[in-house]
Amino acid sequence: MKIVALFFPKASIGTYLVAMAVAIALPIFAFVALLLLQLEDNQRSALKRETVQDALALSRIIDRQLQDMATTLRLLSSSPELENGDLASFHERTETALRNNSLYVLAVDRTGRQLLNTRRPFGTPLGEMANIAALDAAIKSGRIEASDVFRGRTSGDWVYNVTLPRAADDPVAALIITQDAKDLGRVVTTQGLAPGWSAAVIDQSGHVVVAAGPAALEPGTPFDPRILPALGFSRGVFEDKTILPHMLLGYAQIPGWSWKTVIWGPVAQASILSTWRFLIIGGVALVLVAVLAAYAVARQVRTTIRDIAEMAKRMGDGHIVSPVETSVIEANQVAIALSNASFDRSQTEDRLRFVMHELVHRTKNLLTLAQAMMRQLAKQADSVETFQAAVADRLEGLVRSIELLTSEQWGGVSLRRVVDIHLQAFPQSREQIEITGEDFVLKPDAVQNLGLALHELATNSVKYGALSVPQGRVRFEWRDVREENKPDALLRFTWEERGGPPVIEPSRTGFGTTVIKAHAASAFRGTVEVDFLPDGLLWVLTAQRATLERD
Q: Per its UniProt record, what Pfam families does this chain match (predicted)?
C-alpha cells in the first residue's frame, strides 16, 4: 500500500487527468521517434516483401502458360490419328487447332529426327531437332519438361520447347510444343511495377528466356553470373551494394519447372529530416493540447461526479431520486440507473414485506397440514417404525408438490406436470398408467391437495391394487362436465383400476382413504365417490373448475 500511495498520492481528478495526458503524450512522442529511426528499414523490408510477391506473381503467370502448353500436349498425345500412326492427319488437325496461336508442334523419334513440324507443310524434309539435350532429359525423367532457350533451326529465332515423352516402344518418342521467346514476352510486362523496374524469366542454365523493362536483356543473354549462385531458394531477395548499387532484386522458382522469374529495380529512400522537425514541433504542441484538454475534461467530470455522489447519498437515505442531466452520456446512464435502482429498491422492499407475509401464511398452512397428517397417522400406527414410514411417504408426496410450486415461484403449475411428477415416484409402474385430459394451470393450493390425493391413490395401487401386478392397468383422466341448475363449469377426475388382484373393501377407514375422500372433497369443495368394484378401485372427484384453475 505504501508503494501505491507513493505513485498515486491523494490528489484531485484534474491532477490525475493532466498527469495521464502527459504520461500518454510523452510515450507516444518517444515511440514516433523510434518509428522514424526505423522507417528506412521498414520501408526496405516492405519493398522486399513486395518484390518477392511481384516475382511470385510473374512465376504464376509463366506457370499457367507452361501448364497450358503441357495440357495441350497431353490432349494431342491421346488423339486417334497419332495412336493410329496417321501423322498426316495429325499434322493437319494440330495445325488447324493451333492456327491462331504462336505455338508449333513437333513429333520426333528417339534420335531427335523430326517426324513432323507444324511450322512446315507435312512431307517437307526435316532434319534433326536443335535441342537434343532437352529431348534426352525429358525422356530420361519421364515427365513433361521445359527446355532452356536456344536458337531454333527451323525458325532461326530464339525459342524454347515443352517436351512430353511417350512410351518407349512408340515410333513417336516425344511430342514437343515450341514457341518463340519473343511471343512469351507478351505475358512478361512491368505493368504494376514501380518506374525503373525490370522483369525477366531465366532458364536452368542461367540464360534470359524473355525480359521486359528499362534493363531488359535479349533472349539467350546470360544473366549476371555473380547473382545466379545466390538464387538457390524457392524465393527470396538479393542485395549487394557492389553488384546492384541502390537496387533490389527479388526472385521466385516457377513450381514444377526449372525456370526462375526475377524482378529488380532502384530502391527509393525518402529523406526524413523534415519529418524530424515536424515531430519535435508537433510533439510539444501535442503535450500542451493534451494538458489543456485534460484540465477542461477534469472540471466537467468533477462536477458530474459530485452530482452523482449527491444522488447516491439521497438514495442511501431511502429516498426515490430523479436522474440528473449532465453533458457526459455515461454519467447520464449512471444517473438513470441510480434513479431506477432507488425505485426498484422501494418496490423490492414492498415485495419483501409481501413475500414475508405469504411465507408466514404458507408455512402455517403446511404445518397445519403436517400436524393433521401426523395425528391421523399416529392413531392408526401400531409401532414407531410404521408411523415413521407412513409420515415419510406422505411427506415425500407433499415435498414433490412444494418443489414444483417453488420452481414456478408459487405461481401455479400445469396439471400434466403435477401428474407426471407424482407418478415418477413409481417408475416401475409408469407404463401401466394411461393419462388423458386437456392440460391447464392449477392454483398453488390445488397443486398440493391434488398431489396428496394422487400420491395416495398411486401408493395404494402399488401396494394392493392394479399396479401391484404386471398385468394391471390404471386409467386417470379429467374432463369438463355440465350439470343441470349449475352454471359453473365442473371438472371430473377419474382414477379407474383394472386387471389387479380381487378388491376387498377395507373394514376401517385409514389415513389414505381420508385423503382421497374427505380431504379431497373438502379441499376442492366438491364430491368424491369411491367404489371398491370387483375389477378394481374407482375414484371420482367432481369439483368446480374455478377451485382448481389459476386465473
A: HWE_HK
In the chain, count of helices (H) and strands (E)? 14, 18
Backbone angles phi, psi at 151, to 5 degrees: -85, 115
What strands lie across the sheet with 235-238, from one edge to the other? 208-212, 198-202, 260-266, 247-253, 235-238
Q: What is the Cα–Cα distance from 195 to 213, expressed in whole angstroms?
A: 9
Phi, psi dihedrals of residue 158, rounded to the nearest 5°: -75, 125
The pLDDT score that the predictor gives to residue 189 is: 86
Q: Just give the CATH number of 382-547.
A: 3.30.565.10
Cα 297 → chain centroid: 41
Tell me the backbone φ, ψ of residue 200, rounded to 5 degrees: -155, 160
Whole-Å CA distances, 141 to 146, 163, 253, 447: 12, 11, 19, 88
Give the start-to-end residue ranges of the domains of the chain. 382-547
Long-range (24+ apart) CB contacts under 8 A made by 420-425 are 421/451, 422/397, 422/451, 422/454, 422/455, 422/458, 423/454, 423/458, 425/396, 425/397, 425/400, 425/455, 425/458
Q: pTM surpassing 0.85? A: no
Contact 191, 198 (CB under 8 A): no
